[in-house]
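To: structure desk
From: M.T.
Subject: fold request, one chain
Message: Could you run this one when you get a chance? Sequence is below, nothing fancy, just the single chain.
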Amino acid sequence: MIKEKKIGRRDFLEKSAHMVAGAALLSGGGMLLSGCSQEASAPQIEWPYPYTKLDPDRAAIKAYENCKAKQSCSYGVSAGTLGYLAEEAGYPFTLIPPDIIQGFKGGVPGHSSLCGAVIGAAVTIGLVTDIQTQDKLINDLVSWYKEYEFPQFVPEGEDAMVTTVCHSELCLNSVDVWCKAAGIEPLAPEMHERCARLCADVARYTIEKLNETLK
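Reply: Done. C-alpha cells follow.
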C-alpha cells in the first residue's frame, strides 16, 4: 500500500508558485516554436531568457494602469513586468502576451487563494531565471508580500490610502484585512483601487529584485 505524503500549507503554496512559473515557460516555449516556424530568421533563444534591466517606478505605473484597465491583478503585474520587458527587450518576450495569466486574477476566481499579483510576478521571474534563482526569488517575494504594508504606491494627483499588513499570501485574507481597516465593503470601487496600487508595489519590488540579481 502506498502511503500518502502530507504536504504542509507553506510547501503547497511555494510549489504552486513554481508550477505557475513552469506553466508559463511551457506556454512561452510553445509560442516561441510557433513564432520561429512563421519567421525562419528569428533566433532560437534558450531559457532562461536574457533579462534587460527595467525602471522599477515605470513598472509600478504600468502594473497599476493595466490592473485597472482589465480588473485583473495577475494581468496587471504581468503587464508591468513581462509586458514591459517586451517593450524594452523585444523578442522573445513579444511572443508571450501578459493575458496568458488573466485567469489567476483574485487568487483564481471562486477560490481567492494565492494573490494573482504574486502569480504574475512569479511568471516573469520564471522566464528569466534558472530554477535555483527562482526558488530564492519567489520565496523572498511571498515572504515580503506577507509582511509588507500595502498599498504604498500613490498615483499622481491622488491621496494615499489606508495601509495594512495581512500576514498572509492569500487574496481573501489580504482583501479582508484591508477592507475591515478601511471600513470598505468588499468589491467596492475603493477595494479595486487598493488592489491596483498593490499591483504597483509588487511590480516595483519584482523589478528591483531582478535588477539586483541579474546584473
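Reply (cont.): The chain is about 60% helix and 0% strand. Let me know if you need anything else for the meeting.
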